[in-house]
Amino acid sequence: MPIRIFRQAELPRDVISRDFVGEEHGGVGACVLFVDAAPGEGPRLHRHPYVEILIVIEGTSTFDDGESKHVVSAGEMAVVDAGQAHGFINPGPGRLRQIDIHLASGFATEWLT
Questions:
Q1: Contact of 66 with 45, CB cutoff 8 Å
Q2: What phi and psi, each to the nearest 5 degrees, are found at residue 9?
Q3: Is 9 helix (H, G, I), strand (E, B) or coil?
Q4: Is 54 in contact with 16 (CB distance < 8 Å)?
Q5: Cis (ω within 30 of 0) for the bond into 93?
Q6: Class of 29-102 in CATH
Q7: Helix H or strand E segment including 21
Q8: In terms of Cα–Cα distance, which of 20, 22, 60 is closest to 42?
Q9: Which residue(s) pair with 111 in the sheet?
């Protein structure tokens, strides 16, 4: 099979991201979200039954694990274990751009709040 190329701008849009869902592209074993969030935007507390890796490319992300908050800046990443509660918000003032990698071919999210 040849290498497949996808343009971020052509991926389906969600609230604050463009999403590559592996199961929709030949069963690739991951989902990749290209997050572009304005100040104050981000998902509320939730969890997944798989590991998620969040890589901050630009701006700052404040991660919440339900007990404490952690500031993650451009050039840093966070690894969220399967079943771990988490959410994040862009504290501003600029845009938050990050890449979220779900280590599963499809999304499974349990919203906690």
A1: yes
A2: -65, -20
A3: helix
A4: no
A5: yes
A6: mainly beta
A7: strand 17-21
A8: 60
A9: 46
Bridge-based pairing state of the strands 60-64 and 87-89? antiparallel
Look up residue 13 and give its DSSP letter: B
Residue with tokens 């069963």: 27
Q: Which pLDDT belongs to residue 113?
A: 84
Copy the structure tokens of residue 38: 């304005």
Q: What residue spans define the domains of the chain? A: 29-102
In whole angstroms, what is the distance from residue 40 CA to residue 32 CA?
22
Distance, in Å, from the CA atom of 84 to the CA atom of 72, rounded to the nearest integer, reads 17
Q: In angstroms, what CA-CA distances link 102 with 1, 43, 52, 70?
A: 23, 15, 5, 20
pLDDT averages per 10-residue partition of the chain, 113 residues: 91 96 95 98 98 98 96 97 98 97 97 92
C-alpha–C-alpha distance, residues 28 and 97, integer Å = 23
